[in-house]
Amino acid sequence: MKTLAAAILIVGSGLFNGVEASGSFNMNEKLDEVLRFESNSLSIEKNQTAFVKVSFKINASGKLEILEANYSDESIKEQLMQKLNNISIDAATDTDKVYYYHFTFKKM
Asked: Tens-of-pLDDT digits for all 108 residues of the chain?
């Protein structure tokens, strides 16, 4: 059975500032919890790599607002955006803070 390894490389503010001042919120943990992909759900071939770079803010209602996205595969970007749009943050956060992430996907 083919397996899919989704390596998430974290770049930018999320790497160094994962815990907000209140100490109750960690974006990296939230992403690890939500970003799961089933085997063969991503349209990449074995040993092929795809990436999505995304920047976002968390609005006052706790939803992610995508500011910009660069990607190597449209289908993978769309699947990632669907999962990011389903994230809801209950903890108090800085609505001006911009998060930068680089997601790398590789089917092994």
From this structure: 333 444 333 333 343 344 344 445 788 888 888 887 776 667 777 778 889 999 999 999 999 999 999 999 898 899 899 999 989 888 888 889 999 999 988 877
Burial 53-90 (b: 16+ CB within 10 A, else e): bbbbbbeeeeebeeeeeebebeebbebbbeebeebebe
The helix (run of H) or strand (run of E) holding residue 82 is helix 74-85
Location of structure tokens 């970007």: 77
- Structural domain spans, the chain: 4-37+52-107
Q: What is the distance of C-alpha 14 from the center of its chain?
A: 10
Cβ-contact 81, 66 below 8 angstroms: yes
Partnered with residue 95 across adjacent β-strands are none
pTM for the whole structure: 0.71
